[in-house]
User: What shape does this take?
Amino acid sequence: KEEKALMEEMRSLAAAIRPDEVMLVIDATIGQQAGVQAAAFHQATPIGSIFLAKLDGSARGGGALSAVAATGAPIKFVGTGEKVEDIEHFVPTRFIARLLGIGDLEAIIQKVREAEKEVSGEALEAIARGRFTLYELREVLKSMRKRGWLSKLLGFLPGLPYELPSEAMEEMEVKVERWLAIMNSMTPEEMANPRILNSSRIRRIARGSGTTERDVRELIKYYNMMKKMGKQLRKLRRTPFGLKLAKGKWPIRMG
Assistant: This one.
């Protein structure tokens, strides 16, 4: 009864106001129910676009696809937090990367581009290609730390929510400080080619930076994860599906 009353109210409002467009806000955490919900609203009044909210948690938002199919409306915006600045334009390639669980390297690049005065164009280009060294990683981490964007940066990695809990964030900030100290203790050769970091080199770096061998290995693991993300996205772009994404062509319209 309450749902019917809500739909009637929505229908009446649409008839009275005659909006140019009705945007449906979909909760990213409700899964496939998004399609059912979208279809019901679409029957009450035609849906023109979709806003996918609550993408700051662990939800990947796959249910939004069924909402698009039910209404034929494109996804225009996504919400990754509670503030106005957390509203972002929907980018298909990022969304697919999240669905596939390969992280969101493009979002990381965008955040870094906002700090372009502090990060060189060469570093950005290298990271975008997934072919970068520890020099570029250090440059990015320094900039992100300075601007207080570490939680966003780390949240775009696979398996992590967009916003980390405050306790985890504090722990991560300490960890990044260690990583910067570790990289500052490496030789130019090691920074340029991390593959040569064997056990004896790791031991020396840990002693020189006042950290542990485990800390050094964690940094190497993080670096390799970032490179893997870049390679996976490069492969995706080369597929027929990836080419469609790049040109904005979708089997179903998503904006």
Observations:
- DSSP finds 13 helices and four strands in the chain.
